[in-house]
Protein: Aldo/keto reductase
Organism: Westerdykella ornata
Amino acid sequence: MTSPLLTLNNGHKMPQVGFGLWKVDNNVCAEVVYNAIKAGYRLFDGACDYGNEVEAGQGVARAIKEGLVKREDLFIVSKLWNSFHEPEQVEPILRKQLADWGLDYFDLYIVHFPVAIKYVSPETRYPPGWFVDDAGTKVEYAKASLQDTWKAMEAVHAKGLAKSIGVSNYTGALLLDLFTYASVKPATLQIEHHPYLVQPKLLELAKDNGIVVTGYSSFGPQSFVDGDMDLAKNISPLFDHDVINRIANKHGKTTAQVLLRWATQRGLAVIPKSTSVKRMEQNLDVTAWDLSEEEIQEISSLDQNLRFNAPLNWGIPIPLFS
């Protein structure tokens, strides 16, 4: 089984269902990526900050060497971390990330968060994380504007180092501002998206401007409980929610499949992950069957505007979404 393709605003095709690499442990990452390719995944969503791009690249290289796929069959995504927003740092870090993956280009390169923090060289600490000091106590902002960073993104796009460029964790206001100076409109917007955080107006803005939205953390608090986040521990897990369970039982699907189909049926791309091959296959099977319109609305009505992936929730003193 493979994913259907979405057409980006530059004509490139992107799989609607991909595999997210956040929190995939280094010691299993290469094997997980290889198994995901065998299961049918073609899009892999990585990032500097995940710290596993070398291992992910090893999994890709093994699959290519064994003839399971060709490079052009894959859609590899990575992200520009906050401490590399200064225009002169964008291309060097992109080239390092390409080298880590063992690739000549990314299919999509994304601004990870709309905030610039002080540069930390890869030789000093990599990935650098949110803090400028090794002790993890001090945040320092950089002076790079989002406009300057985007122009540097356009420059690496023009060189073919990234076939498409996009943004992540942008609000509607930041998108509207980006449209005023972008020569290359973002191809995608990646946001936290689940029934507790639906963001319908942001989705509408993206659609009106031809931007494909990728939803991450499709399972809501499930992705954050292991981070000991009180917010995630103190709310009903979506996997156990009565509404999601009832709909899953009606369709003979897992609760994870229902959550993913709720997103894909509404036109979003998704990037679930699992180390279990069986669940990999289940998570890929979320486009060939439909929920009713009433079920979609019922799931959407669970919205609480509840965001888990905010720096303040991790104890990082950056009020990005406040």
In short: The chain has eleven helices and ten strands. Residues 154 and 183 are 8 Å apart (CA to CA). The chain has one domain: 14-304.
